[in-house]
Specification:
The complex is a heterodimer of chains A (337) and B (259). In chain A, 76% of the residues lie in helices and 2% in strands. With 337 residues, chain A is mostly helical. By secondary structure, chain B is α/β, with parallel strands linked by helices. The chains are: A mainly alpha (337), B alpha/beta (259).
Chain lengths: 337, 259
């Protein structure tokens, strides 16, 4: 029987995850090695300056890329399944935009408050992302049907309005507040020391795990919503949980690194293309590949110019924009919903 | 025989919409085949979607083994009742076998993947649906009729006790219509599967079905054996079309429009 040729699911999952873990290890090694200061192991052992550079700047930055890349890619994969739309991602759906607005309100007003050790910025960003998801979903849904065009358009509009709101905020605030927002928006992956990484891990890891735990449900939803409903998936509850988790993850990443576009779009598609459509493979696969991708993109951003560096968002945008257009073209061959 | 599944006085009103189902009752016995007929907008799909657990009835109740359907855990319910919707719109290029394999999910624990045994059942289901040759194809590239065959296979892979079908034969060619009816008859014989099928294809309803429920304006207009319901006067009333004719020829009932 022809179906026997295909590897069984556990085999496929194992193969995918080991390949991608290897990729992540290699790209992390590259990310740690390259930069304006070339670092090697012997230097790290003998030179205290190199050690400081490594632990205070290089390592945190690479870890930041790992966290943000993994987060954006896994939410992208989840949102695509949730909305059954191959063009969905935190950026195109306006989730990043909403989060960015929430974060800039907190940053601009200089709220340095913490709740349980977690900066208020994270909460503000989460709230903004959540509001964006709810808004986009409410607009695009008519009855039980989600209109794919309306979904993306409302995402675009939410992004534009958020960007305008951030801009307005900058003009309304005193110069120091405006500057803080500006620096945050440019700041992207720059981070000093490992402490902020630890704070992010505290929120992100549980959210990742919770999202991965939903991968069976998301798999069934990606195939067909009605069918999922009769296959034992509580559709409404699953959607709500996935929306909240995606908003939380995107909120945290946006608060920490600004809105980096298209990672959540390209990476899940690459994983699908290479390893098949099963969400139970695509979700963990995207997590790993997203991390590797952003680490490499950041390494590129740091070394491409003879002096200074490019923001990593520029690299992902330059790669992601064309990829989006290519998908849009292909999308016309998909079934019209 | 005592019914294991029963709809009692179901009613459904869409939010901000019209009353779609007024009062429908239907007891279902093991290994029975019931056809649901009626004009467009008579509430057939709303009715069957309630039975499938996709819509919560506004009034009345549905009992499975004497327990209200809403009380059943979703996964356990999915092992008992399978639903084949009118159309499935799978956007992503899933392989046919993967879609059929999704029918096994109610039987597989949350954090496990489908086993080789599940895959075997999925292949058998594809064969029963006459779609084994499609196993490696992408669903997004199939025709409407082929998709219906895949959806049927997915529902069969669930190994349910009750199979609900919403116009399963609309896009099927003659050969696959015959395959569909043969498969359903065989599963009823072998596994005691019960079937409720919405259909506009009155020729199909002839000999295989035990009973026909005719809906009109969200209510049961007639209910009984095929030869009791498929009568010119009744059909004319149900469809609001005076020129419908029905005639019994041996075991079959022929229905046509007298132009």
């Amino acid at each position: 029987m022809s179906a026997k040729r295909i590897l069984s699911l556990p085999q496929r999952l194992f193969r995918t995850l080991s390949l991608l873990t290897l990729l992540l290890i290699v790209s992390t090694a590259i990310g740690l090695a390259v930069g304006r200061q070339r670092l090697d192991v012997s230097g790290l052992l003998s030179d205290p300056f190199a050690r400081t550079l490594f632990f205070e700047l290089r390592l945190p930055r690479v870890l930041m890329a790992v966290l943000i890349g993994a987060s954006l890619a896994v939410t992208g994969a989840a949102l695509q399944a949730l909305f059954r739309n191959p063009l969905a991602d935190p950026y195109t759906l306006g989730v990043s935009g909403g989060g960015a607005f929430g974060a800039s309100v907190a940053i601009g007003l200089g709220w340095s408050l913490r709740i349980l050790g977690i900066p208020l910025v994270f909460f503000a960003s989460f709230a903004g992302a959540m509001a964006a998801v709810l808004l986009v979903r409410a607009i695009a849904r008519t009855g039980a049907v989600m209109l794919p065009g309306a979904l993306l358009l409302s995402g675009v509009v939410v992004n534009l309005v958020s960007a305008a709101a951030v801009l307005t905020l900058q003009y309304l605030l005193d110069p120091s507040g405006a500057l803080r927002i500006l620096r945050w928006m440019i700041g992207s992956l720059d981070v000093v020391g490992l402490e902020p990484i630890g704070r992010m891990l505290l929120l992100l890891v549980p959210a990742w795990l919770a999202l991965l735990a939903l991968s069976k449900q998301l798999h069934l939803l990606a195939i067909d919503q009605d069918t999922a409903g009769t296959l034992g998936v509580n559709v409404a509850r699953c959607e709500t949980a996935a929306h909240m988790l995606c908003s939380l993850i995107v909120g945290v990443t946006v608060a920490a690194g600004g809105a980096i576009g298209f990672v959540g779009l390209i990476v899940p598609h690459a994983v699908r293309f290479l390893f098949g459509e099963d969400l139970r493979i695509v979700l963990p696969g995207s997590l790993l590949m997203g991390a590797a991708f952003l680490v490499l993109a950041d390494a590129l951003a740091r070394t491409m110019l003879p002096s200074g560096e490019l923001p990593v968002g520029a690299i992902t945008g330059l790669l992601g924009g064309p990829a989006f257009l290519w998908l849009l073209r292909r999308r016309q061959q998909y079934t019209v919903v | 025989m005592r019914p294991f599944f029963e709809a009692r006085h179901l009613g459904y009103t869409y939010p901000r919409g019209p009353l779609a189902v007024r009062d429908i009752s239907l007891p279902v016995a093991r290994a029975s085949m019931t056809a649901v007929i009626g004009a467009n907008g008579s509430g057939k799909s709303t009715f069957i979607r309630m039975l499938a657990g996709l819509l919560r009835p506004s009034s009345g109740e549905i009992l499975l083994d004497g327990v209200a359907l809403a009380k059943w855990p979703a996964r356990l319910r999915a092992r008992e009742i399978a639903f084949m919707p009118q159309a499935t719109s799978t956007v992503f290029p899933f392989r046919v076998l993967d879609v059929v394999l999704s029918g096994r999910s109610p039987h597989v624990p949350q954090f496990r993947l489908e086993s080789d045994a599940d895959r075997e059942i999925a292949m058998q289901a594809l064969e029963s649906a006459g779609a084994a040759h499609l196993a490696d194809r992408y669903v997004s590239a199939l025709s409407g009729g082929e998709r219906q065959m895949v959806t049927l296979a997915r529902a069969l892979a669930q190994e349910p006790r009750l199979l609900l079908l919403d116009e399963p034969s609309t896009s099927l060619d003659l050969k696959h219509r015959a395959t569909l009816m043969r498969t359903l008859a065989r599963l009823r014989e072998e596994r005691g599967l019960s079937i409720i099928m919405i259909t506009h294809d009155l020729q199909l309803t002839g000999s295989l079905f035990d009973s026909i429920v005719a809906l009109c304006c969200g209510e049961v207009a007639a209910q009984g054996r095929p030869d009791e319901v498929l009568r010119s006067d009744l059909l004319a009333r149900i469809y609001g079309e005076p020129n419908v004719r029905a005639q019994r020829i041996g075991e079959q009932t022929l229905v046509w429009i007298d132009a």
